[in-house]
């Protein structure tokens, strides 16, 4: 076929001038801010550590893209907003992403095959080898020969958290929560969850503030707390191997208020504040304070809230009595009793209110972290058939989140983006247009002089380059 003439796209005139667009700008990127992510990784060594969790069974003589390069390409693309493997069929020709990955020739002129020249990076068919290998067949499979060590990734997430501190903290709060990961096909392990009303997985997340410590994919036919003790055993053990005396608090909603978890916390000297589902016996215990709240509500604009604590136990499931905090709240003419169970000392109503309001309610921020992970780092792209490969995808998005969180922590404190969520960071700091020019000695990025956050960008660069 003959080459078509370059299409001109005409828009409404600007004054006396015609406005004409053409796809002929050459090497232009919309991701110049990705260079900041590269600097973050240089500081914390995250992607090298993640690549080391893979074992490559491929023939080195036939390998053109090393595991470390494949990992960088996939994780950085997720951080930059490219959620699908198919995106890499076009991204493989992006010279800036090739620079971030560490390719010697970002223009791809040194590729072995003529058909691949001009594309320095791997295509989707090569990248999916990170996800689809199975341990039982990895040594013999013709293509899927890159195996991921899940335990090594779990240790890496905690190691990255520990490395973020200059000295031992006084207390570490571990937030646990489960959420739904909707499924739209016949994936392995799918199950219809009555609460969420659709087929889904039920991943378990553990955070310490902004730090992601665990992202475990699970089927939805289990209790929300399933596997929580095993995950905490590994995380707390790794933390205490470095800081033996650090105080640790576990915080979660009523879905995790289970006897095995509380017994484990008691044995391991780990405090807990857990939501407790209300029942008739609990409400009867709280009734005197609830009546006071009903009496006070008309005098306080229609609402009143009182706190108390008492020793309580279930009839069968608990092995001993524990401290329960009750919130007797009256709102808009309706009772709203709430309960938590805790190992913390609670001497009076002021302690009860402080534990509930300042400690337990603060766990709500974890939902924002899960939202960042699922919506903006694409942790819900679990569309392969196998649970194992979907767990690999969850790890990829988890590492991308850790990288973005480190950017926020190391480079943006005190700026207008210090508390920004991942999608805002991507939009305002990473999605920066630039012309890419590759010479013999340098790769030039010519960014717009009108970029409104240039000062924030420069400040972030200075902080990341400092020792």
Number of strands: 19
Q: Hey, roughly how much beta strand do the residues contain?
A: 15-25%
Structural class: alpha+beta
| Sheet with most strands | 9 strands, mixed
Q: Total number of helical segments?
A: 16
What quaternary form is this?
A: single chain
Question: Can you give the mean pLDDT?
Answer: 94
Segments where pLDDT lies below 50 for 5+ residues?
none
Gyration radius from CA atoms, angstroms: 26 Å
Instruction: Estimate the global geometry from the Cα principal axes.
Output: globular
The proportion of residues forming helix, as a percent range, comes to 25-40%
What gap, in angstroms, lies between the N and C termini? 56 Å
